[in-house]
Amino acid sequence: MFDEVASALRRGESLALLTVVRVNGAAPCPPGSKLLVRVDGRLTGSLGGAATDARAREDALRVLRSGQSELVTYHLDPESGESVGSCGATLEIFIEPVHPEPRLLVAGSGYVAQALARLASPLGWRVAMVDDRSEFTRSADLPSSVEIAVAEIAPWLTERDPDPMTAIVIVTRGHRADEEALRAALATSAGYIGMIGSPSKVRAIFRKLLRAGASPEELERVHAPIGLDLAAETPDEIALSIAAELLLWRRGGTGQPLREVAGALTQVLHATGDGGAPEDAQGEDDRPSSAEEVAADMSAS
């Protein structure tokens, strides 16, 4: 079963692993029994019966959606045949989501590429960088976990077989290299494809690809110009804007400022009805903070 887990992760697939941790009564499976549930609902293994497996599938898919492990308890009814004996049984099952480690393939090794590699590595990305200029790649000051390759960029991207949990960032030395890298990236299953460049450069490359037969739907996959609008100027700032967009893609955030998402001031003003502080809140900031409030503020910071 663990070979199947490893194989699924190599393909960029997520799955849920269910393990029986405790059994009471005449259960159809012993502690340690395992079941794999893929995102499409397919099962590998069994917890002893079709009804139990169906229940486990629903719980596993919920865990995959939430991303949070759960400990669930199943009471098996002897009348439905779920338990072995006539007294019923109870299963305690630990359900954990298993996700592939995201990969970041960086095409190019200039200042922005190096800054991005340094920033992305501690954020949980497996980073690999490629350039056809050995002098840049060999002089790069990068974390030891970053894989560095000197090779033709487009073939290298193809050989890495990007999957849906792979992000490709194209930050090469020029238009032609960017275009060739983008063509190669679009032929893969990469979940994220981004390319640096001014709007005029991006438009020029898009026009060439459309004339060459690319469809608008294919080009919709491309995040270009890459990054979030942070008014970034320096290589480190540009890398930060790219890393922020990568995290947005990976985690599924909104990209909005948290003050707008939370709307704390709006909620407070709405609760007062007249835009002023409620009477029982007057002087609230003058009261000494409790130990719990101080601890919460420290944790949040």
Descriptive account of the structure:
The protein has 301 residues and is an alpha/beta fold. It has two domains: 2-98, no CATH class; 103-251, 3-Layer(aba) Sandwich (Rossmann fold). 40% of the residues lie in helices and 21% in strands. The chain is built from twelve helices and eleven strands. The chain has helices spanning 2-10, 50-66, 111-120, 134-139, 153-159, 175-186, 199-211, 216-219, 235-251, 258-262, 264-272, 291-300; strands spanning 15-25, 34-38, 43-45, 70-76, 89-98, 103-107, 126-131, 147-150, 166-170, 192-195, 222-223. It has a six-stranded parallel β-sheet, with helices on both faces. It has a five-stranded antiparallel β-sheet with strand order 3-2-1-5-4. A hairpin with a 4-residue loop joins strand 2 (34-38) and strand 3. The model is unreliable at 279-301 (pLDDT under 50).
SSE blueprint:
Layout: H1 2-10, E1 15-25, E2 34-38, E3 43-45, H2 50-66, E4 70-76, E5 89-98, E6 103-107, H3 111-120, E7 126-131, H4 134-139, E8 147-150, H5 153-159, E9 166-170, H6 175-186, E10 192-195, H7 199-211, H8 216-219, E11 222-223, H9 235-251, H10 258-262, H11 264-272, H12 291-300
Parallel strand pairs: 6-7, 6-9, 7-8, 9-10, 10-11
Antiparallel strand pairs: 1-2, 1-5, 2-3, 4-5
Helix pairs in contact: 3-9, 5-6
